[in-house]
Recover the amino acids of this structure.
């Protein structure tokens, strides 16, 4: 069975500092990997995804994630965060054979001035 | 030009009542989903329809019944509501096997 682990439930960080949100998954088959962001009282928005090809994927707002098959990880990074990045971040794994997403428990990124 | 919309946004009701949540997508996708997010923010899939056919049916009480009248709509009907049904319910859509796009959620509170 597939599972996703986000070890950090909350990550506090000062504005303009770098941040890494960790995501590890377990699966015996090839997977697709996603990061979704949920701002307060809003729905989920796709941040970035890995389907195939280059293992480093980037979003338009400065986040990036690297797929590491040997470590079964897909950590999310940003070199300099803004107050507006405060949100809940969800890592998810999907397989085209089952058409469903398995989500991690989420990491709350709290950016302080 | 909302991509995935849900109604209502908030739903407060008494235990034992029957309620429905509606979802519509204008992305031309053929697959739609219902997810439940509990009070700890944990997200879990409930159902999925592809071209109006049920393809995912997780372990969900049979008080929950999804209905897809066409490819652009997926509704969720809940009978005999219980306190534990309180959650945020998210609809999503995609092309089969592709990236899922989520609606804004419906916050259900059962009193």
């Amino acid at each position: 069975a597939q599972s996703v682990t986000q070890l950090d439930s909350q990550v506090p960080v000062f504005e303009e500092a770098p941040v890494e949100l960790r995501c590890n998954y377990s699966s015996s088959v090839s997977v697709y990997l996603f990061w979704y962001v949920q701002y307060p009282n809003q729905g989920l928005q796709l941040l970035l995804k890995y389907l195939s090809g280059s293992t480093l994927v980037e979003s338009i707002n400065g986040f990036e994630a690297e797929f590491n098959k040997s470590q079964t990880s897909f950590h999310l990074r940003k070199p300099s965060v803004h107050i507006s990045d405060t949100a809940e971040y969800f890592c998810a794994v999907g397989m085209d054979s089952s058409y469903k997403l398995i989500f991690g428990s989420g990491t709350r990124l709290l950016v302080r001035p | 030009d909302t991509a995935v919309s849900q109604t209502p946004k908030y739903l407060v009701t008494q235990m034992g009542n029957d309620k429905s949540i509606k979802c519509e997508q204008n992305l031309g996708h053929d697959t739609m989903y219902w997810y439940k997010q509990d009070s700890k923010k944990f997200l879990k899939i409930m159902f999925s329809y592809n071209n109006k056919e049920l393809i995912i049916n997780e372990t969900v009480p049979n008080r929950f019944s999804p209905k897809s009248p066409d490819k652009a709509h997926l509704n969720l009907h809940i009978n005999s509501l219980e306190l534990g049904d309180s959650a945020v319910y998210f609809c999503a859509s995609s092309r089969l096997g592709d990236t899922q796009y989520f609606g804004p959620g419906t916050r259900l509170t059962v009193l």
Observations:
- The mean pLDDT of chain A is 91.
- Chain A touches chain B at residues 34, 36, 38, 42-46, 49, 88, 90, 94, 96, 98-101, 103, 105-106 (CB under 8 Å).
